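Researcher: Structure for this, please.
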Amino acid sequence: MRIQIRCLTLFGCICLCFIMLGKVSVARSYQDYQTWNLPDGAIARFGKGGISQGDRVIAFSPDGGLLAVATTIGVWLYDVKTTRELAFFTGESRWNHAVAFSPDGTRLAASIGSRVKLWDIATRTNYLTLEGRTGGMLWSVAFSPDGTKIAAGGGGTVDLWEAKTGKKLDTLKGHSDWVRSIMFSPDGTLLASGSSDMTVKLWEVSSGTNTITLTGHTDRVRSISFSPDSTRLATGSADKSVKLWDVKTGANIDTLGSTKNPLSAKQVLRSVLRGTKSGPHAYRVDSVAFSPDGTLLASGSSGGAVKLWEVKTGQNITTLQVPVELDKSVAFSPDGEMLALTSESLGTVRLWEISTGETKNTITGHTQNVYSVAFAPDGAKLAVANGSENKVAFWNIKTGKNTHIMVENRGWVHSVAYSADGTKLMSAAAQVIELWNVKARKNIVAFKGHENTTYTVAYSADGTKLAAGGAGNTIELWEVKTRKNIATCRGHSDKVYSVAFSPDGTMLASGSEDKTVGLWEVSTGRKIAMLKGHTDEVRSVAFSPDGMTIASAGSNERFAKLWNVSTGENIATLTKHTGWGGASAVAFSPDGAILAVGSSDNIIKLWEISTGTNIATLRGNNHWVRDLAFSPDGTKLASASLEGTILLWDLEAIE
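Model: Predicted structure, token format:
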């Protein structure tokens, strides 16, 4: 048995090629970008991956027409005027930390894991891959002003290559911790590197000599930026400060936001009227960037604030406050009229017009931390728990459109479950389980869950009962109609990560951090059995459609287990998962013939239950596969990953 990819007509092949190049739009059910660079067997990708962390995860092309965005699944290329997706370059790793355009705008570079990948913009092809320091993560990448060299910084060193051939020119050593940010001086004579060792080093490009080391920060240096005239260097640090340095002497010229640079009465009034906060950052500074004319400096903070500074006076002239406390990367457009800034939690890139202080356009769709996925009973929609984004998103399976979003105000959403008739949806966030009317898109009621985080919810097949497990080590059972708590299942000694009702609704299975699978009587909450055999936490459990078998998987084990419900016997152990982690999600096909097992090594294995044979391996996720769901007709499989996407797999070709 194997996955077969259907043959395409000649016309289909031509269309597919153009879709992958981002050249044309083709009439099809999914939005074009949802089908770009898909892995074998996948038919669509919902979500564009979480925006990466770092100081240069976004970059304008030299002519200002394009914007590159580094994400957990690769690099997206956008049209700045329309914010339309133009191309998607797969990173083959979730560690896509920084992007940079060549000075002539024909090439794009990205630091991905321990490599630098370079693409030709016109052809959308990866023409060169550079191997960085062995075992070291590369956090930053930069082209020299003349485009002949490319540099990347990582674990304590900076690698330097010839940009055209990929020939290694030099490795600059001297930092004692991660190099987080690098940049060539605009005149091309120097290369600066900022490090977690709290220093910034200036290197002579021609000789590789460290000419000056800048000290003064009291925590990690996360970002650096040269002024356009190459005379000054700005640095942002985890110590919450933004500093300006004299490049020639290494002297600290200014610390922006300090008490020696008070705002004028006019600037204070303007700040108050705009509802902004002046002064220094309250959280670590993740990104700094000079405006093209050198008069302004932008700084982005993990506290949700982006500040604009007047370089000459050191005064904070405005602050953009976003109500999320995650990384902010900032970049000026080449004409200096716009500032692009990222919001990892909101999944957006805002294009802010400097003259008016208003948002001119917003790039959306970059989701992160997908924890749970559930098909509607009619198979038409997919509900998705978007983790740290505190929301539940709904996707139309036929069109690939994000139809609507329901926002949780209580915290991270870890789990979702549809009622049997599809009219209601349960979601678990923080200590509360929310019941939603799907059609009206309204919250009906909230069930008080556990004193600590609720990780999992499940509906009984007849829709009358609800189960929830979490950090309180117990499982709560409710009657949905009356909202009455009918039982509490006690017996686990650690967190409960997964619960599943038997098809007839009489039993409940649970997976716990205590390495056991619990089996419970639903009517009373009585413990029937504790199934032992896992050597690590049990992240996922599922009943077979006939109710005779339970599947379970532990996140740091390279196998899934099958249990006989009647006897509690471990009847099979399905192995073959590799890598640093192991099996973490299980789901039975509607006919019970296949078990899908997702893992923290980013792959999905399909097992034939009757023979215990691994019939297919699906590869394409860049991060931990946290949840799996078969469509009701068994023709599709949805995989939810911490990279922030859902891959939809076509299973009709399995023989």
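Researcher: Any notable elements?
Model: Residues 260 and 314 are 9 Å apart (CA to CA). Residues 1-28, 262-276 have pLDDT under 50 and may be disordered.
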